[in-house]
Structure formats: C-alpha cells, structure tokens
Design a protein that fits this description.
This protein has 142 residues and is mainly beta. It is built from 1 helix and 11 strands; from the N terminus they run αβββββββββββ. Strands 1, 2, 5, 10 and 11 form a 5-stranded mixed β-sheet that branches. The chain is elongated. The N terminus is likely disordered.
Length: 142
C-alpha cells in the first residue's frame, strides 16, 4: 500500500514540475545596441566560466534582439559573453575557395571591437527561470 502511494506521489510531483516549468534550465533574451542603435545582425555566445558547469549557448541577433530557446538552453551559472557582427566595407575582393577563379565578393570586417568578443570581459550570471541581459556597446576600441 505504501509503495502505490509513493508511486502516485512521484507521478503528481513530476506532472507539477512539467506544468510549472520547475527545472534547472534558464530562458535568456535581451537586446544589443552599438553606439546607441540596435545591432542590425550578429551573434551572441555565452561561454561557461567553469567549462565543467554547462555548455556554450548562443543565438542570432536580429534588429537588436536575441533569444535563446529550444535545446540550446543553458544551466544556471556564470557565463563569459562574446558578441560578433560583420559590416560591409564597400570594397570588392577576390572570393576564396571554393568559388570559381575571378569571383569577387564585397569585403566584410568586424563591426564589434575585440573587447566584446575574442577579448571579451563581459559576463552574465544566469539564474533559473527567465533572464534578460541587455548590452549597450560602443565602437570605440578603448
């Protein structure tokens, strides 16, 4: 009799956890601005400060907004943030392989200073549930 009650309790608790979203996952969204303007397009990556505490998670930035959803939801913890975006220079350069010889493409360069990506010191602390992280970047490389 006790075993059947215990099984019933586990079923009810499991259903409540699913219904209420009680899990260790987080939801992450926010905005990214460059020099006060929404970043047209780019990417944002959250890298665990302790690599044993979760996986890297990221999202596409579109019209200044991003959202991490689906199977890419990270666990709670501290994350280093990298933000990237490319801009066209107006200069035509030869396309690399596998394009046919003589193919020209418009050159792109990073629109975001290294201090926000490969040399980033930006960090965010994810909590269980919904998290919003907004970033207001400057193109000043200092």
């Amino acid at each position: 009799m006790h075993a059947s009650r215990l099984v019933g309790l586990f079923v009810v608790c499991g259903a409540l956890a699913v219904a209420t979203g009680c899990s260790q996952q987080v939801q992450v969204r926010g905005t990214v601005k460059l020099d006060g303007q929404p970043l047209d397009n780019g990417s944002i990556t959250f890298i665990p400060v302790d690599p044993t505490k979760g996986n890297t998670a990221g999202a596409t930035i579109s019209n200044g907004s991003y959202q991490i959803q689906g199977d890419n939801l990270p666990p709670p913890g501290a994350y280093r943030v990298e933000i990237r975006s490319q801009k066209k220079t107006g200069k035509m350069i030869p396309a690399g392989s596998p394009a046919p010889p003589g193919t020209m493409v418009e050159e792109t360069v990073s629109a975001i200073p290294d201090k926000y990506n490969k040399a980033s010191t930006l960090q965010s602390e994810f909590k269980t549930g919904s998290n919003t992280f907004d970033f207001d970047l400057t193109s000043d490389a200092k």
